[in-house]
Amino acid sequence: MPAAPSPEPNEQAGPPSQILAAFEAAKGFMPLGEGLALYEAAVEAGRLGLPLLEVGTYCGRSTILLADAARAAGVTALTVDHHRGSEEQQPGWEYHDPETVDPEIGLMDTLPSFRRTLHRAGLEEHVVALVGRSPQIAALWGTPLGLVFIDGGHTDEHANADYEGWAPHVAPGGLLVIHDVFPEPEDEFTGQAPYRVYLRALGSGEFTEVSVTDSLRVLKRTEAGRGRRG
Ligand SMILES: C[S@@+](CC[C@H](N)C(=O)[O-])C[C@H]1O[C@@H](n2cnc3c(N)ncnc32)[C@H](O)[C@@H]1O
């Protein structure tokens, strides 16, 4: 008897193998377990038929996962970054990678690496890259979003601005995903601002927790949060 046709890859628990391979080959700061949780959230949010937005592209590692979920759902993934790196990624700091520096101008520029990553993953047509400062882009934004993934700057100033700028655009039933949430000060690597933003989101009554995977938190907009901007 012929083998039964395989289900569509995205109906399975994780991303297709070639997407997983592209993710694992990409430069970046998203561990596999958290990446799989992000992918699951993106697949769920994709059912709303709205764009999925990331703050903090870097070299596109997590973008691959959002892009593949967006592809499967027939929506677009959006990713925001000024591509000049966060504080802790600058020369002399712990997370600096000299390969990300543009030798002509001596500043970080992760855009070329991001574009190579997406091209290699075959996902370019599913992603719109928004190059600029997150609060500046958010101030111009007017479209509801199925998912907002906050993985940008880790100072209180940046993390709060990302929350204030983008969370209001999460549609009813949509997901707010926050990375690098470390409740214990001794576990944190880049500061506890994402943890404080996570508490702020829960405290607002507009979001409820859906899942916890290491430092990745998935929240959903509650009924009480319905009808807000976005
Ligand atoms: C932790 S990295 C993102 C990691 C990425 N999601 C991954 O999977 O590897 C944070 C990124 O946020 C960007 N960033 C920091 N502050 C920003 C801001 N205010 N506006 C836009 N991008 C910002 C940095 O340039 C950096 O590329």
Automatic annotation (TrEMBL):
GO BP terms in the entry: DIM/DIP cell wall layer assembly; methylation
Keywords: Methyltransferase, Transferase
Superkingdom field: Bacteria
InterPro entries: SAM-dependent_MTases_sf
Pfam families xref list: Methyltransf_24 (PF13578)
Entry keyword ATP-binding: no
Any one annotated GO CC term: plasma membrane
Keyword Zinc-finger belongs to the record: no
GO terms for MF: methyltransferase activity
PANTHER family cross-referenced by the UniProt entry: RHAMNOSYL O-METHYLTRANSFERASE
The protein's name in its UniProt record: Class I SAM-dependent methyltransferase
Gene source species: Streptomyces colonosanans
Source species taxonomy: Bacteria, Bacillati, Actinomycetota, Actinomycetes, Kitasatosporales
